[in-house]
Amino acid sequence: MNAEFITVTDPRWAECLAEMPHDFYHLPEYVAFAARHEGGTAAAFLAREGSQALLIPLLLRRVPDGLGGRSTWRDASSPYGYPSPLLSPTATAHRGCRLLHAFLRCSRDAEIISVFLRFHPLLSSPLAEFCEHGAVVRHGQTVWIDLNDDRQSLWRSTRENHRRGIAALRQKGFQARLDHHEDWPAFVAVYEATMERLHAESFYHFSETYFRDLCAALGARLHLCAILSPHNEVAAAGLFTAVNGIVQYHLGGTAEKYLPLAPSKLMFDHVRNWARDNGQSIFHLGGGVGGRDDSLFRFKAGFSRTTAEFHTCRLVVDHDHYGWLNSRFRQMQLATGQVNEEFFPLYRSTTCPRRMPPPPVEQTRPDHARH
Fold first, then answer.
1. Greater confidence, 232 or 201?
2. 147 with 294, same domain?
3. Would you say residue 86 lies in a domain?
4. How is residue 123 annotated by DSSP?
5. pLDDT > 80? residue 363
6. How far is CA 144 from CA 59, 117, 216, 222, in A?
7. Residue 352 placed within a domain
8. Which pLDDT does position 158 carry in this prediction?
9. What is residue 152's predicted lDDT score, i.e. its pLDDT?
């Protein structure tokens, strides 16, 4: 067996992805982008035995300064999104366990103390194997659309009040368009205003550099959908990705003056039809804030009753040093009392950006939840 951590420039990363179902979160270009904006070093663990492989995209970070740990101690986490471990589809449970053991062994050798992983709701994940070595946590459901259905079936599966809203927007003269370069400045402005309005955490107040770097990383795999008002203003806009048959909703926002009309309904309908007509298989809308069954989840569920489960995994690689770091952290936080015992790793509970999905495209009214 060959097992090691590899860099984003290693050709074996792309070669491995060519053998497995994957999403844009697994691309070395995206992981390198995430490292620049989330911090850390972009890497992937790759283990191969015969024709079977395990690939885990990661961000590697030194443990926080000030805890007194060695400068060589690190931890690992998935980049933002759903960059779950990928295991060869034909791998047996026994082979999967062997490859996971290799990951734990290499992590110990690299002085990695803990690992936080985000699984992909729609891709096959070795949950059972990870359950044997760590805590797998269910966060809730996400909504997805099967694009193999015809347009009429997709429309019938849309909640009635969504259909009425989409029809009303079209009747008023709202239009959707995709990948118009001139819509980018308005999108960035609308997105930032949305985050301000929703009092989003600082992590989600992305700079223009973030969006430029994301475009550079994903290229033609990234798409901007804008909804134009009858006055040619951007009423709502969102970023979507299309990789390996999977279309993902990434980020979006709605201009405040158009909130009562919920123009993002037209945006999701337009992208759904575009994706289907262009041969994509799945449109993943995501879930509620933090995986909750909230107004955002119910809004998305208005486009499809099909859901999937979102899980994360917490792995402690070095139990002795993990316990020591947590003890040091608790002692240092006695004065402030800022210790979130549910956060993993605990010693990062005041230093790590949120790992849950961003706030909603728009705040939905209660009637949006009716069938």
1. 232
2. yes
3. yes
4. S
5. no
6. 27, 21, 27, 19
7. no
8. 96
9. 93
Closest CA to 81 of 22, 40, 15, 126: 22
pLDDT at 89 over 60: yes
Q: Which domain holds residue 181?
A: 140-307
CA distances from 83 to 65, 125, 228, 233, 346 (A): 27, 11, 33, 35, 22
DSSP 199-227: T--GGG---HHHHHHHHHHHGGGEEEEEE
- What is the CATH classification number for the domain harbouring 328? 3.40.630
- DSSP-assigned letter for residue 362: S
Beta strands 222-228 and 234-243: pairing type? Answer: antiparallel
As a whole number of angstroms, the distance between CA 369 and CA 144 comes to 17
Amino acid present at 167: A
Is there a contact between 237 and 226 (Cβ–Cβ < 8 Å)? Answer: yes
295 & 160 share domain = yes
> What pLDDT, on the 0 to 100 scale, is given for residue 290?
66
Task: Kindly state whether residues 74 and 182 are assigned to the same domain.
Answer: no
pLDDT tens-place string over residues 256-309? 999 999 999 999 999 999 999 999 999 999 988 766 778 889 999 999 999 999
Q: Are residues 78 and 198 in the same domain?
A: no
User: How many independent structural domains does the chain possess?
Assistant: 2
Burial class (CB in 10 A: 0-12, 13-18, 19+), 366: exposed
The predicted pLDDT at position 112 comes to 98
Cα separation of 83 and 56, whole Å? Answer: 8
Residues 296 and 153 in one domain: yes
Residue 212: CATH number of its domain: 3.40.630.30
| Helix %, strand %, coil % of the chain (to 5) | 40, 25, 35
- Does 215 reside within a domain? yes
pLDDT at 340: 81
Predicted TM-score (pTM) of the model is 0.91
Same domain membership, residue 253 and residue 119: no
254-283: buried (b, 16+ CB within 10 Å) or exposed (e) per residue?
Answer: bbeebbebbbbbbbbbbbbbbbbeeebebb
Q: Judge if 297 and 339 occupy the same domain.
A: no
